[in-house]
Amino acid sequence: MRLVLAVQLLAALACVSAFSTVPSSRFVAARAASAWSSQTGVRGHAPVMALKGLAKKAKIAEVAKAKADLEASSPHSAVFEYLKQGQEGAAAKARPSVVTPVLRKMPGTLSVVAEYRRNLRSGFIASILEPELLSPMFRDGGASAVAIALDRNSGGCTEADVKAVIKEQSIAIGDFPGALPVITRDLVVDEFQVAHAKTLGAIGVTISMGLVGPERAAELVDFTGALDMEAIVQVTNQEEVEAALQLGATILSVTGNPPDEACDLKKHIPDSVLAIVHVDRRSDEGLDEIEDCWILRDSGYNCIWASEMLYKAGQMQAESVIAVIKAIRAKASVKYGRARGMSGRGEGAKEFLATLAT
């Protein structure tokens, strides 16, 4: 009972943070850092770490039940075949490159991972469209991949949502823009979750260094590679970056940082490693997150992981999912103009052959 209450408290704290005030003016490092502290609290603070530990315990219990239920109902499920395959092949420490080629673009440009989620912290819209309706918007906007937030307490998506997106994307196979691959985002604590993602058709999974620790993260990364998938290791600080690099991670996703701190962390990520950064939704009604994306691009990041920022403005034509993704990918810079309005000279574009059409 206490475990359930703790998880509910964690979700409640996330909801409360959605209504804090964040400056809507142009990104300034000091102000952004201050705004971040007011929204999320100090990272590493004991209560936050305690809640993370409780969330981990809850997820372990949830996965154990799911595994037991599947063994009872479908003992010959493909999930168990993949579990066996992964366990046998993990020792080879394979590092297949299946996500990296999708997300790595020309220097000075960004790819976008568009995340579909059902649970929103935003106070401006109550719900989002069904996956069958949003999936083609991700593609039309120019996203490179779709992520499905599977954790039921944070993302709220289900296996059915993953299948729906993959089915819709399959319609575009052979077209331009083509079908987008799917990545599952979950609190991965067990190989069973990776094997399950494989059966659904995902090409990658997220693994949180802060949640499972370096030793367990290494095991999960090896297991993921053995299934011809690629692990995206989520990191929040320099210590986790160094630990992820030591275990041979090929993709790092910087999460839980304001833009200025994310820019500093990029200095510790070599160019040979694909660098993704999660851009959090601000609590105002503007879209200054777009400028954050441009600043992060100019600091060397390869990809933006866009989650709730995609949905904060609803489906107005100028602020829809398609418009937000296109704005993130725009060949623009805060050095020459603002993301909103028509100010600035408009220079600063970095165009490359084969990017003009997209």
UniProtKB/TrEMBL annotation:
PANTHER family: INDOLE-3-GLYCEROL-PHOSPHATE SYNTHASE, TRYPTOPHAN BIOSYNTHESIS PROTEIN. The lineage of its organism: Eukaryota, Sar, Stramenopiles, Ochrophyta, PX clade. Pfam families: IGPS (PF00218). Gene3D superfamilies: Aldolase class I. This is indole-3-glycerol-phosphate synthase. Its EC number is 4.1.1.48. Residues 1-18 form the signal peptide. One of its GO terms (biological process) is L-tryptophan biosynthetic process. It comes from the Eukaryota. Pathway: Amino-acid biosynthesis; L-tryptophan biosynthesis; L-tryptophan from chorismate: step 4/5. Residues 98-254 form the Indole-3-glycerol phosphate synthase domain. It catalyses: 1-(2-carboxyphenylamino)-1-deoxy-D-ribulose 5-phosphate + H(+) = (1S,2R)-1-C-(indol-3-yl)glycerol 3-phosphate + CO2 + H2O. GO terms for molecular function: indole-3-glycerol-phosphate synthase activity; phosphoribosylanthranilate isomerase activity. Keywords: Amino-acid biosynthesis, Aromatic amino acid biosynthesis, Decarboxylase, Lyase, Signal, Tryptophan biosynthesis. PROSITE patterns: PROKAR_LIPOPROTEIN.
